[in-house]
């Protein structure tokens, strides 16, 4: 996520009343051929500073002399070929592909799969005949076009390939830029050809089409051909819409991508174009079959317990996602374990390595050492910056390359940079920004040369920048998929931050501009909202505590966030505090909320709405509904006629309850619906999708005014779950049936059947609970209210993210269902429950025995085919667990700020003696007193300056970021403090020495402690942290020396498990007082609630045991409180991790969740607290436990997490 500067982010909001009547707008996706993998999850690298072991990467393909076999011409550079020409090439290769490029300008993309021996394949309006001969008896080759019409080929699955001949018979017709067929002729169908290997990279920013293919071989070859045409060769990338999944506000989530199924040609010589999966169509040239991909995002580094990643990803999967979305940061841990977890759960990965990732992280994810100015202004082609990111980016690309779908892994998309919309200095004039273009080209070339052979994407910060789309320009730096970010209700709980981007509009205003933007900038690509709002971050001073883009054919949405996590240590940028809950569907404490359930409703619908994978936007206006208060968009699949009528209030901020009828067109005719039931109802800011001609099994739902939750096929017969809010009426028309019967009526009233031409219409009113209907074709419908739908789960037996309908069962009742295994007549379920509750299971009829979390579940079979059992009462309640937690009354105390005393021994501190700086903000005085210049980048930074002679005061200006604070002492006496401001980053005060005594005959010591709030993002990453000005006033005194201290070891990373971002320069941190095992036996006893009665700092420690129930997933936190008006800054530590920053004067966070694994649930825990009183009135802080959640669970929290909590070692050298 990015706070976009106002001067670059003005959006024009178009009227949603405007009719947008469009036709065929599906997206040919030329560069991708990934084997059945367009389901995403998103991983990003957070920090650059961490090293990776080097991986070998061979790239030694070379061209051998031509083979002139079979009468074809020798393929050579700069040779013109005509339709009907035969082209021969031959080569030796040990690993990398050799590329034959046949370039035709002004042509759209197309794709071709491999052809064994002499076979021909017609794809759209092209016929390509490929002949392969050689000693291997007929090798398989992959062929593919990118969207500059570059034909690429390479051996499929070969490790070596020597002296083979390949020649092409180019026949039939060409295609113009609109995908229309034109007659071929020798004059209109010439091709210029170049021959290259994958060892060359591009340096040109404005190449010609032909030159580009030669110069950018690594990037272009890999961007397309290396994307992995396998022998099962399916796919492409595409989109469907984006509202479902798990990270969404008001029920919107996911990133939806359409999947394109490429031609599958059998080795036996079949000329079949395709072998599609159910629900997918194949179209030539102007259209593609697309698959929605439902993605959820988390920052794994904000939950630094690897064993808990599985918990989050299982919840993501249960909400209907095909993909998990995570930002990566290596740290000292083996992050590649996440690939295995995601694959096991059934998720694919979109990997985002940066090198800049933003994410409200310190310096946007840049390491501290990069922020000094020594590497330039960053994010451009400055050689110094290039040399800084290249080792990281090369090695991480090599690591990830092993986990690509092309290598049997699950990473299928690779993002270059983040929110870097800098391709133009003037967008309207399309004036290129050449340093930015060069930077993107360098990153892309690095990725390709280090083994990344999957598609590259980039996300623009907003819709104004229009950067990096091949459809928009032929400038350099373009990626394979253009994308944008948007936060329609503000990325922050402080709405004023977003006025410059969103305009001064009412809350909950939605924007009907995505479709227009994508049609302008990237009409041949998926419409991808790479970040779409799923919540907001809570800034310092923020509160304590739906948009339906289907209508706009938004192809993909990464909802930010699904799980936010915690800004532990110094992870955050200055504007936000410890919590990164983000109002996400999965809370910071890992509890699932109503937002999660709303997200699940939509995510599960998108999973089975197969016709959404290829739709046209037919029309959108207020004329469909019986009232102009309702605005409708019609989407229709041109192959199946399946349609989706997306209804919202015309005024999106409306909270009205509006009833209406809807005009629809179906295969059975035109209807005004409902025909027999009460009207459709929209309640305020919700949206409903009315489906028509919705395929289920061999029949269709002609229409339904109730929303579809899921379809599960059992015994070759579908079970359909429809849902409505209790009290609303529903109506659906099932084709292919003549009558139905009510098997269970508890959850509905007024169920009526009306036989009509073509089927049966069912009308009813939904009550709390569920009803079951069976038709004469044995199709079953389960009708549920919203609250029942919330706790209806569809676990799959398969790890395939596609989640076939015949791989699922339906489970109603529990808090969460994590997995299902079906073996013969037994069903094994795992999950969580929060109270004694009935569980109902719709499973194959063969199932006779059920276990839940490994325990036999006694079940009975109902008349309508389900199994019903009972989950028992919880072994412990939240209250009982709370009562068993140990008291937090026995604390030890020590002075937390001895450095303020003039006699303090700072002989081990760093001498500050730099008299030059490369920082773009040079200080007002020298020596340089910026922490980053001396290797101190995080947390508190301490300074001691010595002077002799007279002075009456000092002018201090300290840069620490917004919300930062500092205190100054002269010879041990407080002379003043900056308490913090949400708008001032360089805090200046003139402080008097009147309350202290100068040493007229000896040295005076000025001590400053700064609370460094982290580095700014984007262009502000190089803003310094430290003293900008320290000038004595009213005398002749001059500073004679300065010393500086920060985190122990500086950049040395002496605690590789917790990492350098965990600690700052407090005395207690430098000596390791916050770590388990430190001996505090000689300390005095006191409590933070008693606090200190004057200025200064105190450090408190206590050790408490825990022994929580092993069968339960318990979420714990701590509550910090202090008297009103307190001017303090406190840091809270749990087993050595800084897990809370408490500044009550400027922030409202009082509850601080702490993850199991950081807390030892079955052993001793070291709890510590630093309390810094900035004024002479002193400070105190009360600390108490809180139990945030407790459920019986299959998720085992008894894992060995001791490795995460290394103990104290002697740190006296950092005194």
Automatic annotation (TrEMBL):
Keywords carried by this UniProt record: Glycoprotein, Glycosidase, Hydrolase, Membrane, Signal, Transmembrane, Transmembrane helix
Keyword Protease belongs to the record: no
One GO MF term attached to the UniProt entry: beta-galactosidase activity
All copies of domain Beta-galactosidase, residue ranges: 611-792
EC annotation from Swiss-Prot or TrEMBL: 3.2.1.23
Top class in the EC scheme: hydrolase
Region annotated Disordered, chain positions: 184-218
Keyword Cell division appears in the UniProt entry: no
Biological process (GO), any one: carbohydrate metabolic process
Enzymatic reactions: Hydrolysis of terminal non-reducing beta-D-galactose residues in beta-D-galactosides
Transmembrane segments: 235-258
Family label: Belongs to the glycosyl hydrolase 35 family.
Record's protein name: beta-galactosidase
Organism per entry: Cudoniella acicularis
């Amino acid at each position: 996520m990015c706070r976009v500067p106002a001067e670059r982010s003005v959006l024009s909001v178009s009227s949603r009343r405007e009719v947008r009547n469009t036709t065929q707008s599906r997206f040919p996706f030329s560069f991708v051929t990934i084997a059945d993998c367009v389901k995403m999850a998103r991983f990003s690298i957070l920090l650059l500073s961490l090293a990776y072991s080097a991986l070998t990467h061979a790239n030694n393909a070379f061209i051998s002399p031509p083979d002139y076999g079979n009468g074809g011409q020798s393929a050579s550079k700069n040779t013109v070929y005509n339709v009907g020409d035969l082209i021969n090439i031959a080569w030796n290769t040990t690993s990398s592909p050799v590329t034959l490029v046949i370039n035709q300008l002004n042509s759209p993309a197309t794709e071709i799969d491999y052809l064994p021996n002499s076979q021909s394949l017609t794809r759209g309006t092209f016929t390509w005949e490929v002949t392969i001969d050689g000693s291997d008896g007929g090798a398989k080759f992959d062929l593919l076009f990118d969207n500059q019409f570059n034909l690429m080929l390479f051996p499929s699955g070969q490790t070596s390939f020597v002296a083979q001949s390949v020649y092409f018979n180019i026949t039939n017709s060409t295609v113009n830029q609109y995908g229309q067929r034109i007659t071929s002729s020798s004059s209109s169908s010439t091709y210029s050809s170049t021959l290259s290997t994958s060892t060359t990279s591009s340096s040109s920013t404005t190449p010609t089409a032909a030159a580009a293919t030669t110069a950018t071989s690594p990037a272009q070859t890999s961007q397309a051909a290396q994307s992995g045409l396998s022998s099962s060769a399916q796919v492409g990338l595409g989109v469907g819409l984006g509202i479902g999944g798990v990270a969404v506000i008001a029920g919107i989530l996911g990133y939806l991508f359409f999947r394109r199924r490429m031609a599958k040609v059998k080795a036996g010589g079949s000329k079949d174009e395709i072998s599609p999966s159910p629900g997918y169509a194949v179209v030539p040239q102007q259209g593609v079959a697309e698959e929605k991909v439902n993605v959820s995002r988390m920052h794994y580094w904000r939950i630094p317990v690897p064993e808990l990643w599985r918990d989050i990803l299982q919840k993501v999967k249960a909400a209907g996602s095909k993909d998990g979305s995570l930002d990566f940061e290596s740290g000292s841990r083996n992050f590649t374990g996440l690939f295995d977890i995601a694959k096991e759960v059934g998720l694919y990965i979109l990997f985002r390595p940066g090198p800049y990732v933003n994410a409200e992280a310190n310096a946007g994810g840049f390491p501290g050492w990069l922020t000094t100015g020594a590497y330039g202004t960053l994010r451009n082609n400055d050689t110094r910056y290039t040399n800084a990111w290249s080792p990281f980016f090369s090695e991480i690309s090599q690591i990830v390359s092993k986990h690509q779908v092309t290598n049997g892994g699950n990473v299928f998309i690779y993002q270059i940079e983040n929110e870097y919309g800098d391709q133009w200095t003037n967008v309207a004039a399309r004036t290129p920004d050449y340093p930015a273009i060069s930077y993107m080209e360098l990153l892309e070339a690095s990725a390709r040369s280090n083994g990344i052979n999957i598609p590259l994407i980039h996300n623009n910060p907003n819709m104004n920048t229009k950067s990096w789309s091949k459809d928009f320009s032929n400038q350099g730096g373009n990626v394979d998929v253009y994308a944008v970010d948007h936060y329609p209700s503000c990325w922050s709980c402080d709405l004023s931050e977003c006025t410059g981007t969103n305009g001064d509009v009412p809350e909950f205003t939605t924007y009907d501009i995505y479709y227009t933007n994508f049609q302008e900038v990237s009409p041949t690509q998926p419409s991808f909202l790479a970040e779409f709002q799923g919540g907001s971050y809570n800034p310092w001073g923020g509160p304590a505590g739906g948009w339906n883009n289907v209508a706009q054919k938004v192809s993909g949405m990464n909802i930010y966030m699904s799980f936010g996590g915690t800004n532990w240590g110094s992870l955050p940028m200055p504007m936000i505090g410890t919590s990164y809950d983000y109002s996400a569907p999965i809370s910071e404490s890992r509890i699932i909320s109503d937002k999660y359930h709303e997200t699940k409703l939509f995510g599960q619908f998108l999973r089975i709405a197969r016709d959404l994978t290829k739709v046209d936007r037919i029309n959108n206006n207020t004329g469909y509904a019986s009232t102009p208060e309702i605005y409708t968009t019609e989407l229709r699949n041109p192959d199946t006629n399946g349609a989706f009528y997306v209804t919202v209030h015309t005024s999106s901020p409306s909270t009205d309850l509006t009833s209406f009828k809807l005009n629809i067109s179906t295969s059975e005719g035109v209807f005004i619906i409902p025909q027999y039931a009460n009207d459709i109802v929209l309640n305020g800011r919700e949206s409903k999708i009315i489906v028509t001609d919705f395929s289920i099994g061999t029949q269709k739902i002609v229409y339904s005014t109730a929303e579809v939750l899921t379809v599960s096929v059992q015994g070759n017969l579908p079970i359909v779950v429809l849902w409505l809010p209790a009290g609303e009426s529903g109506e659906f028309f099932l084709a292919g049936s003549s009558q139905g019967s009510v098997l269970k009526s508890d959850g509905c009233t007024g169920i009526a059947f009306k036989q009509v031409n073509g089927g049966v219409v069912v009308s009813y009113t939904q009550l709390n609970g569920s009803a079951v209907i069976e038709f004469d074709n044995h199709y079953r419908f389960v009708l549920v209210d919203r609250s029942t739908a919330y706790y209806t789960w569809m676990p799959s037996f398969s790890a395939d993210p596609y989640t076939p309908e015949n791989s699922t069962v339906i489970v109603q009742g529990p808090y969460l269902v994590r997995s299902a295994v079906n073996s013969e007549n037994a069903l094994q379920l795992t999950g969580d429950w929060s109270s004694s509750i009935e569980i109902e299971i719709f499973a194959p009829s063969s199932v006779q025995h059920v276990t839940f979390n490994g325990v036999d579940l006694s079940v009975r079979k109902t008349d309508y085919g389900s199994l019903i059992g009972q989950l028992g009462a919880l072994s412990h309640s939240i209250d009982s667990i709370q009562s068993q937690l140990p008291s937090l009354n026995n604390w030890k105390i020590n002075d937390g700020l001895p450095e303020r005393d003039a006699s303090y021994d700072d002989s081990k501190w760093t001498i500050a003696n730099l008299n030059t700086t490369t920082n773009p903000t040079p200080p007002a005085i020298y020596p340089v007193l910026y922490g980053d210049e001396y290797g101190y980048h995080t947390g508190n930074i301490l300074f001691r300056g010595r002077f002799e002679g007279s002075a009456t005061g000092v002018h201090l200006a300290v840069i620490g970021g917004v919300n930062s604070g500092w205190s100054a002492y002269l010879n041990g006496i407080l002379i003043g403090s900056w308490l913090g401001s949400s708008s001032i980053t360089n805090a200046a005060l003139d402080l008097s020495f009147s309350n202290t005594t100068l040493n007229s005959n000896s040295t005076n010591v000025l001590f400053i402690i700064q609370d460094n709030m982290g580095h700014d993002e984007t262009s502000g990453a190089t803003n310094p942290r430290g003293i900008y000005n320290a000038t004595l006033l009213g005398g002749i005194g001059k500073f004679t020396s300065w010393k500086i201290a920060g985190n122990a070891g500086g950049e040395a990373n002496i605690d590789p498990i917790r990492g350098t971002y965990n600690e700052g320069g407090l005395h207690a941190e430098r000596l390791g007082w916050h770590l388990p095992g430190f001996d505090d036996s000689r300390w005095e006893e006191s409590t933070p609630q008693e606090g200190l009665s004057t200025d200064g700092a105190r450090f408190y420690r206590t050790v408490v045991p825990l022994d929580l129930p092993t069968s339960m997933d318990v979420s714990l936190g701590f509550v910090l409180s202090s008297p009103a008006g307190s001017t303090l800054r406190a840091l809270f530590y749990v087993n050595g991790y800084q897990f809370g920053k408490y500044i009550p004067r400027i922030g409202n966070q009082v509850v601080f969740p702490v993850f199991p694994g950081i807390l030892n649930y079955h052993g001793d825990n070291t709890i510590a607290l630093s309390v810094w009183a900035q004024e002479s009135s002193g400070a105190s802080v009360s600390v108490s436990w809180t139990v945030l959640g407790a459920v019986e669970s299959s998720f085992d929290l008894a894992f060995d997490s001791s490795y995460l909590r290394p103990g104290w070692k002697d740190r006296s050298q950092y005194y």
